[in-house]
Structures are given as structure tokens and as C-alpha cells.
User: Which sequence fits this backbone?
């Protein structure tokens, strides 16, 4: 019996494995990865490493054992049919008789196109009969704090979210919730709506950046069309730019405000304030 984490060499997956290592012996953790070399650090610390690809169901055979607790971290290949990819992992887990199947989803309030794959995956999970947990992760602070270079260069935060607000949290916070579920009891068939304790808007974000950098940084709200053009102009593929601009439209409508308190409750501590995430990012 193992705690099995897919996407273990991704940003969120690395946080999950690191935090699991603080709670359970390394040989009870299996990191599922596409590239064994990227998991060499985990292997050196005694974590079991398995190689599999959501696109190749044969690589999923034998990945899971009866009684395992599994965290499926949603994939990032938007053009490859993520519902099919995730269902392949689910089918392998079901065939093995896993004890728990946790999935990193999106807030129930999110109507943007980005959420479609998550809703499709959730339906497959709930129809499967496998004991599940839906970790409906809100937005990451890092979606913004890892993109500071153009903001600092132009002295402007540009988004198509009007005066909308969102309650983001750090990846480490969402990882803490996942670890609580994977190492705790009584989470079967629960849906957690996860988001940061404090909601904020882009004008506040710009003001906090100004405060911390000592430079004037303003928020320039633009239309969804203009923002899509800015993103494609910066080199993003059209479909991805449309998805991200769609998220901004959802933020304007308040669809990424999560006020359930589930995240800090599961993590057992307050979520990371945005100002702290900015501080870490500016330190580099
Ligand atoms: N809540 C948010 O704000 C937010 C923002 C962006 C994304 N997300 C979602 O949350 C997920 C985790 O976030 P993240 O920051 O950790 O993203 P990430 O760093 O891009 O990690 C994605 C992980 O999925 C793995 N993966 C992708 N396709 C796969 C496949 N076909 N087979 C096996 N593994 C595959 C990747 O493997 P490799 O390590 O081999 O590349 C990687 O480990 C993302 O994939 C996306 O679905 C959420």
C-alpha cells in the first residue's frame, strides 16, 4: 500500500511529495513521472518512482495496488483530451482497487472553458464507484508572481478582469490540503472548494507591487479581446491565450472567489498571503 502521486515532477507535485516526506516514510510514497531523471532527487531519498504517461494506458497497468491512496494531478496538455487522459488513470486505479482517488480539479463556481476538462473528469470519477476526493483548487498566486518581469518592465499590471476579485493561494497551500487528505481519514466522497483566505483585485495587486518595489505600478484593465491580442503578441498560442483571457472574464464575474475556508481548515493554518508570495518572488 502506497500513497501514489502523479505529476510528481510538476510544480504542485513536487510540493506534495516534499510535504508527504515530512509525514510518512519515503518508501510509502510512489512518485509517478514521465521522466525518471527528473525524479532522481526523490529516488535518492527513498521515494519509489514509477514511469507512466496519461496518453499510454499500457504504462498505467500495474501502477496501482489495492488499498493505495492516489492523487491524480490534472495534466497540462490542453490539446490532447485531458478527460480521456484522466479517465485512463482512473480506470487503472479502479481495476487495482485503490482505497482513495483524489483529483486536483477547479472551483465549482468557475465557468471558464478551462473548467470543462475538470467537470468532465469529475463526472467520470463520480460515476466510477471508486472512493474519491475532489480537491477543487482555486487559482495559484504563482500564476502572477512568476510573471513579474513584464509587469516591472512596463510598470503596469494588465488584465481583462475589471474590478473583479479572486482568492488565490500558493501551490504549497494546495499541496498541504492534498497531503492532509492523503494522510488523514474520513475524506471519502468529499468535495473541497479550495482558495486563499483573502480575496484581492488587480488594483490591490498593483498597489502591493508598488509598495514592495518602491516604484509606481498601475493596473490597466483592458477588454478580453485586447488582452487576448496582448498574450498572442507575447508569443502564446491563440487557443491558450483565449483560455487565459476567459479566466480573466471569470475573475471579473467573481467565479474565482472561494470563501469556503476549506483550504486553511485542511492545511491547519492560514493560507499564504499574496503579499508574502510577492515578497518571495521579488527576492528571486
Ligand atoms: N490552479 C491553478 O492556478 C492552476 C494553474 C495552472 C495549472 N493548473 C492545473 O494544475 C496542474 C498542476 O499544476 P502545476 O503547477 O504543477 O503544473 P505543471 O508544473 O505544469 O505540472 C503538470 C504535471 O503534469 C504532468 N503531466 C502532463 N501531461 C502528462 C501526461 N501525459 N502523462 C503524465 N504526466 C503528465 C507533468 O509531467 P512532467 O513533470 O513530466 O512535465 C507535470 O508533472 C496543471 O497540470 C494544471 O492541470 C492549475
Assistant:
Amino acid at each position: 500500500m502506497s500513497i501514489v502521486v502523479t505529476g510528481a515532477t510538476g510544480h504542485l507535485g513536487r510540493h506534495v511529495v516534499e510535504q508527504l516526506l515530512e509525514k510518512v516514510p519515503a518508501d510509502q510514497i510512489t512518485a509517478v513521472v514521465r521522466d525518471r531523471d527528473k525524479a532522481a532527487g526523490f529516488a535518492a531519498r527513498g521515494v519509489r518512482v514509477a514511469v507512466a504517461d496519461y496518453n499510454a494506458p499500457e504504462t498505467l497497468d500495474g501502477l496501482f495496488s489495492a488499498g493505495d491512496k492516489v492523487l491524480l494531478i490534472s495534466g497540462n496538455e490542453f490539446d490532447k483530451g485531458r478527460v480521456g487522459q484522466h479517465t485512463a488513470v482512473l480506470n487503472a486505479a479502479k481495476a487495482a482497487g485503490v482505497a482513495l482517488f483524489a483529483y486536483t480539479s477547479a472551483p465549482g463556481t468557475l465557468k471558464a472553458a478551462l473548467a470543462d476538462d475538470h467537470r468532465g473528469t469529475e463526472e467520470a470519477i463520480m460515476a466510477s464507484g471508486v472512493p474519491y476526493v475532489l480537491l477543487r483548487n482555486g487559482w495559484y498566486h504563482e500564476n502572477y508572481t512568476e510573471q513579474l518581469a513584464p509587469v516591472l518592465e512596463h510598470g503596469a499590471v494588465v488584465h481583462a478582469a475589471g474590478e473583479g476579485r479572486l482568492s488565490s493561494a500558493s501551490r504549497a497551500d494546495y499541496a498541504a490540503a492534498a497531503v492532509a487528505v492523503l494522510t488523514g481519514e474520513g475524506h471519502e466522497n468529499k468535495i473541497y472548494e479550495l482558495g486563499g483566505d483573502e480575496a484581492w483585485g488587480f488594483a490591490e495587486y498593483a498597489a502591493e507591487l508598488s509598495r514592495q518595489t518602491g516604484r509606481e505600478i498601475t493596473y490597466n484593465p483592458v477588454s478580453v479581446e485586447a488582452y487576448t491580442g496582448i498574450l498572442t503578441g507575447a508569443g502564446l498560442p491563440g487557443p491558450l491565450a483565449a483560455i487565459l483571457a476567459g479566466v480573466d472574464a471569470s475573475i471579473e464575474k467573481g467565479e474565482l472567489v472561494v470563501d469556503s475556508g476549506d483550504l486553511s481548515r485542511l492545511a491547519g493554518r492560514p493560507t499564504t498571503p499574496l503579499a508574502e508570495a510577492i515578497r518571495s518572488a521579488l527576492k528571486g
The chain has a mean pLDDT of 97.
